[in-house]
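SEQUENCE-TO-STRUCTURE ENTRY
===========================

Subject: a protein chain together with a token-level encoding of how that chain folds.

Sequence line: the amino acid chain in single-letter code, read from start to end.

Question of interest: how does this chain fold, as expressed in backbone structure tokens?
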Amino acid sequence: MFACQVFWMPKAGNSPGEYEDAFWPRHPIFESPGPVRLAVGDGATETSFSGLWARLLVSSCGRGRLEGEGVADELRRIRRVWRKAVGQKPLPWYAEEKLRSGAFSSLTGLTLFPPEERTARGGRWQATAIGDSCLVQARGNDFVCSFPYSHSDEFDSRPRLVSSLESDNPDDFAANTISGDWQAGDIFYLMTDALACWCLREAEAGQRVFERLNEPQTQSEFETFIAELRSQLDSEGRPLLKNDDVTLLRCAADDLRHIAP
């Protein structure tokens, strides 16, 4: 079965209403035979209504609507939804000017498929990513896969993002896609950029990072964990974790044979 939990936290000093990441599913999954679709997105803070755009993207991705031949039509649909929603809000002139530039968000989506045979102890997965939100697959304390980034040096201030303006995406959804296999006991982590960068940097330093990522079991414990990382400094005097919106979606794959039809 698949069991998934999601944890999130806004920037320090911001209210929950100012959180501009997004995630799917919106509620925990305690037991599902699959397929299971997961997604995280990170709305770019410097653009207008980016949190709404991130939520639209992860919702479409989580419902399987950003796959196959229907991707272009679905993007046009949610772009219309975004334009209609933001057009209903009265804004000062300078905000109107900013709005014309559109909103931007990263998107990483993962689909976990159940075993193809009753006796199998694993199955397939497929992931798509645009921008710097990351997927990491772990087996015990070992990395199996990190996508789309595999090293902390790859994070920068100008990742490729999905735009709410159709003219800014001439190729519509020319995203990176990857596939792989999972085994019973594997854990998948979907993280927005701040936490993903910390995860890869800690792993590069030889730290047992997955033990740390598995520690929080409640939202309150996750908030304590993030606050501690933000307050701790590295050897160069920088916070271990950048002050940014943070999202962690954690999904464990167990032995599905006992619930297979």
About this structure: Helices lie at 50-62, 71-87, 93-99, 193-204, 209-214, 219-231. The mean pLDDT is 89.
